[in-house]
Amino acid sequence: MAKVKVGVLGATGTVGQRFILQLADHPQFELAALGASSSSTGKSYKDAVAGRWKQVKPIPENVKNVTLVECEPKEFVDCEVVFSGLDSGPASTIEPAFRDANLRVFSNARNYRMDPVCPLVVPLVNPDHFSIIPHQRSTLSPSPSKGFIITNANCSTTGIVVPLKALQDAFGPLDKIMVSTLQAVSGAGYPGVSSFDIHDNVVPYISGEEEKIESETRKILGGINANSTAFEQLDDLAISAHCNRVPVLDGHTECVSVSFKKQPAPSVEEVKEVLRKYTCEAQKLGCHSAPKQVITVHDEPDRPQPRLDRDWQDGAGVNVGRVRKCPVFDIKFVALSNNVMIGAATSSVMNAEIALAKGYLA
Amino acid sequence: MAKVKVGVLGATGTVGQRFILQLADHPQFELAALGASSSSTGKSYKDAVAGRWKQVKPIPENVKNVTLVECEPKEFVDCEVVFSGLDSGPASTIEPAFRDANLRVFSNARNYRMDPVCPLVVPLVNPDHFSIIPHQRSTLSPSPSKGFIITNANCSTTGIVVPLKALQDAFGPLDKIMVSTLQAVSGAGYPGVSSFDIHDNVVPYISGEEEKIESETRKILGGINANSTAFEQLDDLAISAHCNRVPVLDGHTECVSVSFKKQPAPSVEEVKEVLRKYTCEAQKLGCHSAPKQVITVHDEPDRPQPRLDRDWQDGAGVNVGRVRKCPVFDIKFVALSNNVMIGAATSSVMNAEIALAKGYLA
Amino acid sequence: MAKVKVGVLGATGTVGQRFILQLADHPQFELAALGASSSSTGKSYKDAVAGRWKQVKPIPENVKNVTLVECEPKEFVDCEVVFSGLDSGPASTIEPAFRDANLRVFSNARNYRMDPVCPLVVPLVNPDHFSIIPHQRSTLSPSPSKGFIITNANCSTTGIVVPLKALQDAFGPLDKIMVSTLQAVSGAGYPGVSSFDIHDNVVPYISGEEEKIESETRKILGGINANSTAFEQLDDLAISAHCNRVPVLDGHTECVSVSFKKQPAPSVEEVKEVLRKYTCEAQKLGCHSAPKQVITVHDEPDRPQPRLDRDWQDGAGVNVGRVRKCPVFDIKFVALSNNVMIGAATSSVMNAEIALAKGYLA
Amino acid sequence: MAKVKVGVLGATGTVGQRFILQLADHPQFELAALGASSSSTGKSYKDAVAGRWKQVKPIPENVKNVTLVECEPKEFVDCEVVFSGLDSGPASTIEPAFRDANLRVFSNARNYRMDPVCPLVVPLVNPDHFSIIPHQRSTLSPSPSKGFIITNANCSTTGIVVPLKALQDAFGPLDKIMVSTLQAVSGAGYPGVSSFDIHDNVVPYISGEEEKIESETRKILGGINANSTAFEQLDDLAISAHCNRVPVLDGHTECVSVSFKKQPAPSVEEVKEVLRKYTCEAQKLGCHSAPKQVITVHDEPDRPQPRLDRDWQDGAGVNVGRVRKCPVFDIKFVALSNNVMIGAATSSVMNAEIALAKGYLA
Predict the structure, then answer these.
(1) Do C51 and A300 contact (CB within 8 A), yes or no?
(2) Contact flag B56-D307 (C-beta cutoff 8 Å)
(3) Cα four-point dihedral sign B214, B215, B218, B221
(4) Testing the interface with B: which of A202, A211, A253, A326 to mutate, by most B Cβ within 10 A?
């Protein structure tokens, strides 16, 4: 079967580099165009990222000499799909231009996450939100026959909604959530966080991050109405986030306390059982990037830890540990997710795999 | 006026080293004896800590050649007071032996913190708990005429009870507290945390730490009964702690959410005002180690930070920042305290200064 | 073909853990016995390393429940070969006991490295030194028919002798070598280096390390006499090492300046060419663990770097960069090697693969 | 006596911040003008550095509300002296403009360091080079009556020339020097080194740094001719530098091997004695910023270390340890200097103190 031709927007940035590593030998997708800003267009990929390729894996051989093009639809005419690693500035105009040109846009940018007709999808959680796509198209004029925008969540949101979804499915609506994050520097891109700021230090603030967790979680864990025209956000779910940057390269650690509307709340053992048994649609569909185990539950008292657990399953799943009673809410635990994999590029790619399997790319 | 002669128990350990730096030229106390384990006794202090003195300041000249003695009262006959930097193992028998021998013991060990007749005192918060001392003596047989044990709190408890006390004084009883800590490696002593465990990593677990925060806070913020014979712990104050070790040398960062029993809760501005104006008895008594400003409130969006703020006022006060509304509780903020100073040695020394000023060393 | 049964001595330590990961599914070797100290014997491997398994990869499933045995030959009767990850203390008596019991010992300990009848072999450099084995046996009484001890080099020696061997082969004897190392914390095992010592710090001293580099290099780069009974160390090769510990997890960076006896010295381009083209016997023999490229030469001005280059080829080769004229000697460059792979376990395992291919295990 | 009025060029940068901390309550100098780039002029100092003040000490109270001015001489008419923390780009035109306007410029920029009529002065080493100043003025047309430019050395040069000067004074000309540096991130300013580049890493390259060490050392350790019109650089002194960036905040560690022209070379004990006894003119002149001990020689096997020794004497001196025989050259040792203090701002300020004491500011 012919592979689907895909492009990458923002191909030289850190998220773009991750997209390239994931797509260079993908069984279903074929890299057909790489877009960058004007300062890089016309250069080979290799030359454009010289001194800025910060991945442990080398640049794929079949990508090194690809010539970078402008992020304009006319340069991506061979593509059916584009993955966007753009910053929110350029994303605001470029992404809708690609949608209007009938490309399917899988975006890691924040611009359309809270848009009322754009799915905000963590592939391990809510791919059913894709069903709003026909309605998304219908709101546009002219209505694109194939184009749409699907976004994935902020990296720190992704890490917690996976276990929270498992709990909500099993034990009913959540009541209150308190989360404190210890986020890796890679979440800020390159050059991102100055060593001067984070060396031997914690920065207890990440601009806009707490608000993203609080709003995105309510959309992702919410439903969609019967005729797939509107999301049903969980407006009565109280969430409070404390976000911190810590001197860790990759892997967001998040301390979560949660209470349930339905009482009595589940026991620690029931919670662990439910987390361990949680499965997702990407697995059932046989998606290439889906993890074998969605949530890996650790029994050791001091796990998960970013250095030891972030690369498990190539960072496609989520780790949970220290499940225990919370003296204030019902249950507390630690979640650990790979912010550059499932927290970014892996989510976009897995979303596209699901979309392909479900016929949205036809 | 003659200085009070004091000794240090566990003088070669990391807390002991801090005691020595604080006491070497103290205006009211004079170092008269240094106790260590048998492997060090008979050696000069300098020789005993060779390769283990891990302080930025050099060993004080007047301490270098002091001969270390056993941690036995007969070696401390010249002393009125001892500061204990012992681990909990040896502390369990040595500290009461010194009390029985009529020495005043200011302990940094955890053993007697929750003892019903021992004060657990953060000097910036509850020196009024010293009033149980006569009762402490009366419970012993034979009752020492002068000896007693006073403990200071765990370092992560200390950092939060200072602002919480200010809030409780101003706005009435607290209802619920959720705290997540990002604790420095120096809290674990030397050699303490292996670089292999914490380099590029977070360890989301510190043995016993969450329980200490939860129980100690209820004792410290509680009162003492009218005849000073029992503490009135705040048994209905719900506290939940998530404790993490992060790759920071000194300075515990703590993310706190709090709700008040009395509603409506104070505004952010009222909270900041109350924190800024908070004063403590150590200031009124003119104690040598008391900070000028008990709580330094930061208005910058990204402060306090351990590297930048831990040494402010020699680490004798507490820093608070990011005071804001909590979507789940009433108020949330970030507290930053120097775990090796106000979180350990400075607390013990300031407690002794207060005790001296209030006549407990007479 | 039946696999060769092998054992691991010191199986729970950090080098032992690496041996297990490399041997668990090796095509020629089969793990048949795991030895540990008395405190662990009788336990399952999984239980013995609980809280001490510090590898990113999980414990292999087929190893988890293996019962640990004493490091005594009678427990290893099924084995032909043992890999020793023992510390030098126990190695001093255990390793010769296994040799005497007719096992081939591939040791990572330092004890026999400079022994006049023991090969000190970096598999990418001098496997011809294996030819002393018959003589080694002949010096023992009784002479073992099959047993011998082969050692691999210290991790910081390994990183530099590979490029130095290539240069010596191409341009004749080296005259002087100056090397400064920036060594990773994993080189010190677990718990090894305290975070308190290395956090935000450099320790410009590693006990015995400079002497090891200076002596081992002269043995490894030297020859063996015509009847294979003695090593011909390069006594007139002047070497000076400055060894430093830096806050890096894995990967030793080494700055090398070298001069040649034969003048004029080679150009920078000739040196790079020779390094790139260097091949080793392990490659010709088709050894499972041999790298595709022995020395990867980097042209970028700022490579190699430990975080980016240490895992290239699973750490089985060596990286060299910044080849340039030295204003004092002839040539200078930066070498980067993975101290826990080619610097430790991979060297032992590759040595055994070579020994197998060359008939020494028959 | 009236203080000398001084200004700072580049006052908001990291070197400028250091200047301000050192000058805010200096006994001889009074801050009279602060210059910055156009984006900051007109703002109060406090507002201009909001979010960029990265010092542990707070902004001095008497500086907070000073209004920043353009780096033009007309804005500094009250000043006799300016300290330049400018980058080399703006320094190239601004510094000579100030000299021409009759201000004495003490520059930390690299532009004029190798200028044949500009002194390159490490205040602990070669303030005698100031004597070229009349000649410097005479080369200009029109010749300024008071203006001149004095530069201090690159931070990594500074750390080694101090002990090398002591050795040269005592044992005659040096023959060869090999140095490997392990440099702190603060040397690169702010934001400077990305955490992504240096976290868990070493970067074995700093652009231009090796060349600076090699050339600056030959000028600083050289003399000046009899009529003070030309420097006598040590053209036959062979120097080779390997420069590395390491994850340390402050403090450059440098591994030095040195040989002497005069043989036999001094013993280790003679070298240590000479280093310990070395004094400098700034001490004799009673300069405010001069260290009590120019070179602190450590006898412990593992010192100096950046975290423990960089702040000794406020970073105004240099630390040396591990003095030992070099198997290739004569002597080797480790030097440690505070790159932001004696390696930058302290050098400029001490140079100005010396110049004042010697009448060059009259």
Answers:
(1) yes
(2) yes
(3) negative
(4) A202
Strands of B264-313, DSSP E: 295-297
Radius of gyration of chain B (CA): 20
ipTM of the shown complex: 0.96
Same domain, C9 and C80: yes
Q: Find the domain containing C303 and state its range.
A: 156-338
Catalytic residue among D252, D280, D287, D298: D252
Please tell me chain A's helix, strand, coil percentages from 3-state DSSP, rounded to the nearest 5.
Answer: 35, 25, 45
Contacts of B199 in chain D (CB under 8 A): 200
Quickly tell me which residue has 């390491």 as its tokens: D246
Residue B221 within any structural domain of the chain? yes
| Whether A269 and A322 share a structural domain | yes
Q: CB-hemisphere CA count at 13 Å for A314?
A: 15
CB D136 within 8 A of CB D111: no
Instruction: Write the pLDDT tens digit of every residue in A250-299.
Output: 999 999 999 999 999 999 999 999 999 999 999 999 999 999 999 999 99
| B108 and B190 inside one domain | no
Closest by CA to C336, choosing from C355, C349, C317, is C317
Q: Is residue C299 part of a domain?
A: yes
CA distance B98 to chain A (A): 37
The C-alpha atoms of residue C235 and residue C237 are separated, in whole angstroms, by 6
Which residue in A14, A52, A54, A56 has the most chain C C-beta atoms within 10 A of its own C-beta, making it the best mutation to test that interface?
A56
Residue B4 has a pLDDT of: 98
- Beta pairing class for C295-297 and C318-325: parallel
| Token pair recorded at residue C77 | 């009767």
Distance (Å, rounded) from C-alpha D260 to C-alpha D106?
Answer: 33
pLDDT at res. A1: 73
Note whether residue C199 is domain-resident: yes
The pair phi, psi for residue A28, each rounded to 5°, is -115, -20
Does B362 reside within a domain? no
Question: Is-catalytic flag, D155?
Answer: yes
Nearest alpha-carbon partner for D128 in D270, D279, D231, D246: D231
Taking Cα atoms as reference points, which of D246, D241, D248 lies closest to residue D208? D241
Residues B176 and B96 in one domain: no
Please name the member of D180, D203, D247 whose beta carbon is closest to the beta carbon of C247: D247
Residues D139 and D284 in one domain: no
The catalytically annotated residue of A71, A118, A243, A252 is A252
**φ and ψ at residue B341, rounded to 5 degrees:** -105, -95
Query: Which of C129, C243, C252, C298 is labelled catalytic?
Result: C252
* Burial class of C14 by CB neighbour count within 10 A (0 to 12, 13 to 18, 19+): buried
Tens-digit pLDDT profile for residues C134-149 = 999 999 999 999 999 9
With an 8 Å Cβ cutoff, are B311 and D200 in contact?
no
**What's the whole-number average pLDDT of chain C?**
97
Q: Are residues B150 and B259 in the same domain?
A: no
Same structural domain for residues A135 and A170?
no
**Cβ separation A191–D200 shorter than 8 A:** no
- The DSSP secondary structure of A126-153, one letter per residue, reads -GGGGGGHHHHHHTSSSPPSS-EEEE--
Residues 6+ apart with CB under 8 A from B247: A200, A246, A247, A248, B185, B198, B199, B200, B201, B202, C195, C199
Between B192, B194, B198, which is nearest C190 by CB? Answer: B194
Q: Tell me what pLDDT residue C1 has.
A: 73
Chains near D (3 or more Cβ pairs under 8 Å): A, B, C
- What does the alpha-carbon distance between residue D332 and residue D260 come to, in Å, rounded to a whole number? 12
Which positions of chain D have pLDDT values less than 70?
none
- The answer to whether the beta carbons of residues C200 and D307 sit under 8 Å apart is yes
Total CB pairs under 8 A between chain A and D: 57
Together in a domain, A147 and A276: no
